Amino acid sequence: MSLTIAVHSYKGGSGKTSFAINLASAYASVGKSVCLLDVDLKAPSSFNYLLPEAKRWVNDVFEGRYGVMDVVMDVSKEMGTAGAFDVGYSNPDILAVRDVSSKDRKWQSKALKFLMNAKRDLSNIGIDVVILDTGAGVDFTSVNAIAVADHVVMVGKPGASRQRAIDQVVKGIYIPLEKNCSIVENMGHANNSTDLSYEGQFDLPVLASIPCMCDVAVRCDNEVLVLTEPEHSFSKNIFNAMRAIDKLTS
Questions:
Q1: Per residue in 195-218, pLDDT tens?
Q2: Which InterPro entries does the protein's record reference (predicted)?
Q3: pTM higher than 0.85 for the full model?
């Protein structure tokens, strides 16, 4: 059975999508069969990082028009990974984003069922790791992705106000859903160790504390560092997080 990881954040701008793409690429680079699904229907962005261009969208899966195997594309050749690397994009067209914003709870319930079916179908074809790049916050689409995941990674920035926001997500979503979860501190102060003190409070492990690096902020817009520069300190943090997740879920 495949391992499904939801990469989540309490708000946009945390580096969630960059982390999700690099984590998926890290697994694929070591020979795992990986599928990355962009389920951030209200603010899709993975299509900016990966090729080729999509013909069908994850939105089509949630609408029941297509199954997940009709939507995902193998990008392992383009990315140069040892393992199979499939990706499914959300539709970035503004009309599609507006349409998602108008959906009601009945639609979200059906979307949850379709997402569970997608997880099953990917597992049945031998995908080792499914990574869900969720929407930020706690709307129904994000909660659906968290609900179907085997492990949830919260990507957050350090700081007291941000920590309070993450507290609410942990207490209000992760704990009630009994999710196996962990924290990645991103864009922290270079001279500080981990600022997010969750290990004692919620018994949540901090997988990595990634300092803010100007070159990463620029380069992650158009390249996947774990593949182009695996010895970079950012890449090493991603690989360390990957190994820590494997230990937590084994």
A1: 444 555 556 788 988 887 777 777
A2: AAA_dom (IPR025669), DNA_Partitioning_ATPase (IPR050678), P-loop_NTPase (IPR027417)
A3: yes
